[in-house]
Design brief:
Largest sheet: 7 strands, antiparallel
Number of strands: 13
Number of helices: 1
Helix content: under 10%
Mean pLDDT: 85
Radius of gyration: 17 Å
Low-confidence stretches: 7-18
Strand order of the largest sheet: 1-2-5-13-7-11-10
Length: about 190
Amino acid sequence: MTRHLRILAVLLTLSLISAGPADDGRWYAGDYSFSDELGGFRILSVTGSGTKTDPIEINEELDSASPVTLVIRAARPIQYHGFPEGAFHLRVVALNKSGLAWIEFEFELQEILGKPSEFYDGLSFDQTNPNPNFISSSRFARFENRFESFDRLRFTSGHADPLDRPAFGFFITDVTPVPEFYLVQDPRVPFS
């Protein structure tokens, strides 16, 4: 009987994850929740557990080429998944509904909204053990990982046309985990 209840609980959890945001407007996956509450874009779905083989995948649409901010919160006590606490693999798939081609795409981590992450806050794109194999993009051939005086990951040498869906993968670590932090996403367009 207990086994059947566990199976039922897992099935219910999976159905809730794929059904959409929770009553609080957040999308839950792994040990975190994700929110588009600051505006400028819309989350379409969130799946995955945060491991390398099952990254948390956020499907979203951006209506403009302006920077947008994803709010990330710890949804429950952080679990150990074979890598440090406060760490997870993330894949962002962004539908370009801006009407403009993106020629670069940049991500920036912030522990305090509006203030770039710094070395001492512990939040980074795997600064303590950078592994280029954890960073990928379906449309951009190169990336630059800048750790100081901020934590930014810029994808270059490619483009994403309107209605294209570029995918970006990377590993986020927070060696001093905080309950809430931010991921600024900044699509870049050509200057005329």
